Here is the input.
Amino acid sequence: MADISTESKHQEYKEMISKGGHEKYHTKNKEQGKLFVRDRLKLLFDEGLQVEDGAFANILAGDLPADGVVTGIGKIHGRTVCVMANDSTIKAGSWGARTVEKIIRIQETAEKLGVPLLYLVDSAGARITDQIEMFPGRRGAGRIFYNQVKLSGRIPQICLLFGPSAAGGAYIPAFCDVVVMVEGNASMYLGSPRMAEMVIGEKVDLETMGGAKMHCSVSGCGDVLARTEEEAITYARQYISYFPDNFKNKPKMEAPKLPAPSEKSIEDIIPSNQNAAFNMYDLIDRIIDEDSFSEVKRLFAAEIITGFARINGQSVGIIANQPRVKGGVLFHDSADKAAKFISLCDAFHIPLIFLADVPGFMIGTQVERLGIIRHGAKMIFAMSEATVPKISVIVRKAYGAGLYAMAGPAFEPDVCIALTGAQIAVMGPEAAVNAVYANKIAALPKEEQATFIEERRNEYRKEIDVHRLASELIIDDVIEPNELRAALENRLDAYKSKELIFTERKHGVRPV
Amino acid sequence: MTIVKASMAGTVWKILVNEGEEVAAGQDVVILESMKMEIPIAAEEGGTVKRVIVAEGDFINVDDNLVEIE
Here is the structure.
């Protein structure tokens, strides 16, 4: 039996742990629309935190209950997941030696259990006063990132960013599969605005330099911009549902649903004029189960759409060109975005559906200087390596290396389907006629030029007609646009048993 | 005041608004031609068109100013 003083001390400690930091920090958080870490966990899990370890970490210090981080296990939709969550009411969520040790241990636990790990980040970074204990050593903060890399592709790793993720800590989101940022509060930066002013003389505010909106639309370090913490948590709960617990399992089927009802058919959505824009989201809605779309990087490189959805209850990853934005042309950023998404889906057995309407990769001085070739290579590399069911749909056109990047026939898709009216070629009729006949056109009298050009274009169109390509066995099937949903259902069902090892080697040399 | 900028390099194919006209947020104001595609460029915010900066047929680079809206 513990004596009375031990018992009362124990109760006192437990109360400290459940309350977190000083009242003034709770008030400050509330003013910013930030929830207390334990309230976040109540929202995240079906029935709150089920198991917590290391709650008494650093309890003797007096003002550092749990050492500023909650680690434990809970359930999302009945599935076990691990979590680490910074407490920004305790020294601004900064990391001491025990904070780091707790994070490392929950990573080890998630690996042993083979379950997803969520990082709820809200931290000012390292406690400089504790640096020898928490920074450089074998089980210092570096080990957190090393573990993240090791866990990558083994279990889903999800980052919800509610506050700052500063300096070295900014690498937690960088190594996660997906990063959800809360607008106005979340930020990521290596050096704070104060440090930037001191070291490089730049005067800038935090939101401009490393705010959620910037990272979700410009840098691409953030994937989802949430308006509130509740919205971020809801996204994470839905996101998990597309994934298995670990790489050894496949995602679970959900109850099939029909696509959302609409007056517009796919045939109505795709304009007859090859060069006119249309909204690819409308087409996606026609082929997926109602309300099943969960997009990644909506605000970044919007000329390509990447997101999870369900078709007949089955989890799928969609990669679609968006002709409404930059003509659906592939750029350096869109290629990066697609490369990461493809790699993520492939790691967790999520079949890939490519919806191609792509004029090719962008050309010109500006993009060459940005290294569009090596960025494009990343997408083609990831897509080639992917061994999940790969379905390539040529919605309207696939020109040049655009055909390759969108899992064209040479890249071992399980099927390459073209919609009637689609075109596949090195380049479109306008560019091709110009390339082949430029001298001849110039030599013709002005009044004959237009007729000559139109005749050559029509010849060319016949040459690249989909039925010609199907007749040559270049594409596997031609279907009417309104048959697409049914075709995808049948194909996904047929390819369920696919098991493939891409090739044997230590690892490929990835373009970066 | 906001400036509608070109999202990519190309030529100005069609200008859809006149100076003095009211436009809504999200409304297409210019169509560029690039990579043989029509690229609609929408106004991010609504307002009155103060100035059309480019002419049809002009070559423009990414981020060049197209239309000024007040």
Notes: The CA atoms of residues 294 and 308 of chain A lie 5 Å apart. Chain A has three domains: 11-241, 266-426+465-494, 429-463. Chain A has 21 helices and 16 strands. The radius of gyration of chain A is 26 Å.
